[in-house]
Design goal:
- The chain is α+β, with helices and mostly antiparallel strands.
- It folds into two domains: about 30 residues; about 120 residues, Nuclear Transport Factor 2, Chain: A.
- About 35% of the residues lie in helices and about 35% in strands.
- The chain has a seven-stranded mixed sheet with strand order 1-4-5-6-7-2-3, covered by helices on one side.
């Protein structure tokens, strides 16, 4: 072996460099894989709001109404419905009336489609407001949904239909 010049280091053997490269590749794969899995598992509040919008738009049917009402839990949060100037509140006292009342209120729309024209979503900590402009067979409707986060779940608090 020849003498080293001052300020130079001996070259690493090829197998050590290859092994280091493999270790770095494995570590990078683990980090990237963990990030992808975390992103797939974690549902953001915005994604939950999009799911809610999907549940209240489209073809109006009993099953669709029931699907939208899964966001309401009057035993946890009083639900207020405002329509044509009339206000009705549902709490533990009259929670059983919410589903039949919602079906009755939407009976005239059953079978028609609610087409999303415009949406606005505001998130502020544990509160959310979703404003939708919808086209129905009868014309345009503006609807506001106020939701509140309880633990890790968004619960409907108020619905205003104009």
């Amino acid at each position: 072996m020849g003498a080293l010049r001052a300020g130079t280091r001996p070259a690493l053997p090829q197998d050590v460099m290859r092994r280091t490269g493999i270790y770095l590749l494995v570590i990078l794969s683990i980090v990237v894989g963990a990030a992808v899995v975390t992103d797939a598992i974690v549902v953001t509040d915005r994604e939950r709001m999009d799911e809610f919008i999907d549940s209240v738009t489209g073809q109006v049917s009993e099953s669709r109404i029931d699907n939208a009402l899964r966001y309401a839990d009057p035993s946890k949060v009083t639900v207020e419905l405002v329509h044509d100037g009339h206000r009705r509140r549902y709490s533990t006292r009259n929670a059983a009336a919410l589903k039949p009342d919602a079906r009755k209120a939407l009976a005239s729309l059953e079978g028609s489609r609610l087409h999303l024209i415009q949406e606005s979503i505001s998130l502020d900590g544990g509160r959310a407001r979703i404003a939708l402009r919808l086209r129905t067979d009868a014309g345009l409707a503006n609807t506001i949904f106020d939701l509140r986060r309880e633990e890790d779940q968004w619960i409907l608090r108020r619905v205003i239909v104009n």
